[in-house]
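Researcher: I've got a protein sequence and the SMILES for NAP. Could you write out the 3D structure of the bound complex as structure tokens? I'd like something to compare against our soaking experiments later this week.
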Amino acid sequence: MTVSVFIGASVDGFIARPNGDLDFLPEGAGEPHGYDEFIGSVDALVIGRKTFETVLGLATWPYGNKRVVVLSTQPVDLSAVRGGVVEQMAGPPAEIVAKLVASGAHHLYVDGGITIQGFLRAGLVQRLIITRVPVLIGDGIPLFGTLPRDVRLHHVATQHYPSGLVKSEYRVAA
Ligand SMILES: NC(=O)c1ccc[n+]([C@@H]2O[C@H](COP(=O)([O-])OP(=O)(O)OC[C@H]3O[C@@H](n4cnc5c(N)ncnc54)[C@H](OP(=O)(O)O)[C@@H]3O)[C@@H](O)[C@H]2O)c1
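Model: Sure. Here is the predicted complex with NAP in place.
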């Protein structure tokens, strides 16, 4: 099993404004920077309840018929999702990964700040692909948080794009 993160952040490390606004991200996610190839390689997404709420507000469900697992400690109304394959889970990240492995998943995409932080703290993330958007927003929802110990990263590659996006891939050291 591989667990990956693919996310956009301001240069000062925020994935959304304090109120959840994403207006600082380039429109339409900016020029192609590998998202389609990445999402094509994953079996399932694991997203936090707050990210799910943002996604529900989009005009169309963006994940097609890809399996999506929404994490929440509370019952989540999934009925608003039209045409998607969505289920809810809760619990320690290791249990969630174990359930998904048991149901045949090989590559998970974990999304949402709190959710990513939980999987990182549990030592369950193997790949981080972070696209820095050339802006400082000063305050917001952070991509990263506290850790029980350092997480060493190996730099795999960095690409930059004409709009100023800088995408870096890291492998989490064993
Ligand atoms: N820039 C980008 O590329 C990008 C990508 C994704 C998201 N975002 C933005 O980031 C914001 C959301 O991020 P966020 O950090 O606030 O929250 P989040 O990670 O999306 O959601 C956090 C919630 O997920 C649930 N959760 C997480 N881990 C769980 C677990 N192991 N078991 C049970 N429930 C669990 C909890 O829900 P309950 O409180 O219901 O228990 C928790 O409050 C949104 O504004 C979204 O648009 C930006």
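Model: The chain has a mean pLDDT of 96. Helices lie at 35-40, 49-56, 93-102, 113-121.
Researcher: Great, I'll pass this along to the crystallography team.
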